Amino acid sequence: MKRARSIRAVRNEARSTWVCFPIIDGKRTTRKLGNLNQLTREQANAKAAQVMTSLKLKQERSIPTVSELVAQYRAERMPQRYSTRRSYECWFRKHIIPCWGDQAITDVQARSVELWLQSLALTPKSKAHIRGLLHILLDYAMWRGDMPVQRNPMELVTVRGSSKRTRIPRSLTVEEFQEFMLQLSEPFYTIALVCVCFGLRISECLALKWGDVDWIHGKLTVQRGIVRQRVGEVKTVYSGRKMSIDAAMLELLKHWKQTTQFPADDDWMFGSPVKLGRQPWSYDQIWRSFRKAASDAGIDKIGTHSMRHTYRSWLDAAGTPIAVQQKLMRHGDIRTTMNVYGDVITNEMAEAHSKVVRMALPPVN
User: Fold this and answer.
1) Which of helix, strand or coil describes residue 134?
2) Whole-structure pTM over 0.85, yes or no?
3) Please, where are the H alpha helices in 2-65?
4) Is the predicted pLDDT of residue 288 greater than 50, yes or no?
5) For 170-204, how does the pLDDT look when each residue is reduced to its tens digit (9 = 90+)?
6) Model confidence over 326-338: pLDDT tens digits?
7) How far is the C-alpha of 320 from the C-alpha of 314, rounded, in Å?
8) Share of residues in the chain with pLDDT > 70 (%)
9) Of the residues 40, 77, 243, 258, which has the fewest C-beta atoms closer than 10 A?
10) Distance (Å, rounded) from C-alpha 207 to C-alpha 231?
11) CA–CA distance from 68 to each of 6, 8, 62, 85, 91 (Å)?
12) How far from 287 is each of 129, 224, 304, 307, 345, CA to CA, in Å?
């Protein structure tokens, strides 16, 4: 085995001094050890070794542990959106800190992380989330200067099956949706219609206020989301767009506005009577109501997000062009094509929305 080369003292005859040249962060530096007439070569070499030991200890102390870096990340770079913060904290608390917390951030390397992830009893998607968070943490360490700027080691970590769905998204047929709706009472009936007719996430639907409806021009603006009764921004910049409201849907919303106890512009569209309208109905209450209604209708288990999947399926069934679907779903991607070339035709979006509303609303006798 090749032995590590020890640092040696060198005579600087021009200045009559002993010097050494330690390498710090890949760069050669110079350290003065003493005058030639004060130190022998053995003494100068011993002092050079002391300098090197001191520099190594200082460098090791300057590299934070994973726990220390996580604490700094929370203070400086943690996302403000509640649902994102909550998921990050979950991965930090349950997995990353228990395993890596006491280790230096430079010890978090690709092979050891990949073997560790393989040992976890988690779904591939969850493992990919943890890898992604470690990637963010290492990028943050490079930004802070705690480690050299280099290729992020997490780019080399493979999580097999992370792009595959473990469950097929559940969409309802028109007939199933009508049976499902017969089992719902208010406000869950109107919530389901709003979700399926606009393709809203439940966090967006519950965060609607009456002031978000432009009654004159027939437009709905999604401006916020709410998770565990904490109001925040919408999921992406593409989520907060104005959407056309079909005339039949506008009438249904007017009827609900006249029915609810909380019809002011600044009131929640689905304000909870239990909370005196200060908060909307909770997600848990909606979820339980939807699951019971599905069970009573003889439909396999569905969740609140099934309304959004159903919306997407119905857009397909209505023959809606994929570019229009991308805008109506408020996605930021079909490889960014539609965002680069501007908005699609508003008339096509309104027509597609109206087709979905016709499917959702019960037939008039």
Assistant:
1) helix
2) no
3) 41-62
4) yes
5) 788 889 999 999 999 999 999 999 999 998 989 99
6) 777 766 654 432 3
7) 9
8) 87
9) 258
10) 7
11) 32, 36, 11, 18, 16
12) 25, 20, 6, 12, 35
Tokens in use for 364? 């008039």
Distances (CA, A) of 39 to 16, 48, 55: 11, 12, 21
Q: Say what the pLDDT of residue 336 is.
A: 30
Q: Is 312 helix (H, G, I), strand (E, B) or coil?
A: helix
The residue behind tokens 């869950």 is 188
Query: 136 Cβ partners below 8 Å, 6+ apart?
Result: 73
The helix/strand/coil state of 260 is coil
The answer for residues whose C-beta is within 8 angstroms of residue 219's C-beta and 6 or more apart is 213, 242, 243, 244, 245
Residue 239: its pLDDT value, please? 61
**Amino acid letter, 268:** W
Per DSSP, the residues of 221-252 read E---EEETTEEE--SSTTTS-EEE--HHHHHH
Q: Residue type for 86, please?
A: R
Min mean pLDDT across 36-45, 107-116, 180-189, 227-236 is at 227-236
Helix (H) or strand (E) holding 28: strand 27-28
- Residue 344 one-letter amino acid: V
190 near 256, Cβ under 8 Å? yes
Tokens 């403000």 locate to: 80
Higher pLDDT, 23 or 271: 271
Query: Tokens standing for 150?
Result: 């280099």
C-alpha to C-alpha distance for 273 and 354, rounded to whole angstroms? 31
Delineate the domains of the chain, giving CATH numbers in brackets. Answer: 10-62 (no CATH), 66-156 (1.10.150), 174-360 (1.10.443.10)
Q: CA 154, CA 132: separation in Å to the nearest integer?
A: 8
Token pair for 246: 């079909």
- Structure tokens that stand for 326 in this block: 């991308």
| Contact by Cβ (8 Å): 315, 356 | yes
- CA-to-CA separations, 346 to 48, 172, 236, 250, in angstroms, rounded: 75, 27, 21, 18
**Angle of the 124-144 helix axis to the 110-119 helix axis, nearest 10:** 150
Question: Which pLDDT does position 342 carry in this prediction?
Answer: 34
